[in-house]
Design goal:
The chain is mainly alpha-helical. It has one domain (12-60). Helix content is 43%, strand content 10%. The chain has a two-stranded antiparallel sheet. A hairpin with a 6-residue loop joins strand 1 and strand 2 (50-52). The longest helix has 16 residues, at 23-38. It is elongated and about 50 Å long.
């Protein structure tokens, strides 16, 4: 099977696990997601700990 982004061959073991991208393209996408989610952490209440804020929470935050 070929990677859907760069057309490199994907190892059979990776395809068997359900991946449709090569390791390089998958890592690139994962790093972009990590950078995006770093900005989605905040304090939910006074004197509370930091908590991950989901995409849905961001839409309704501050209402």
């Amino acid at each position: 099977m070929k990677c859907r982004e760069c057309d490199n061959n994907i190892p059979k073991g990776r395809v068997a696990l359900g991946y449709d991208k090569c390791l390089i393209c998958g890592e690139k996408e994962a790093q972009q997601l990590v950078q995006k989610r770093r900005k989605q952490v905040g304090i939910t209440y006074n004197k509370g700990g930091y908590q991950y804020i989901t995409e849905m929470d961001l839409k309704s935050l501050g209402r």
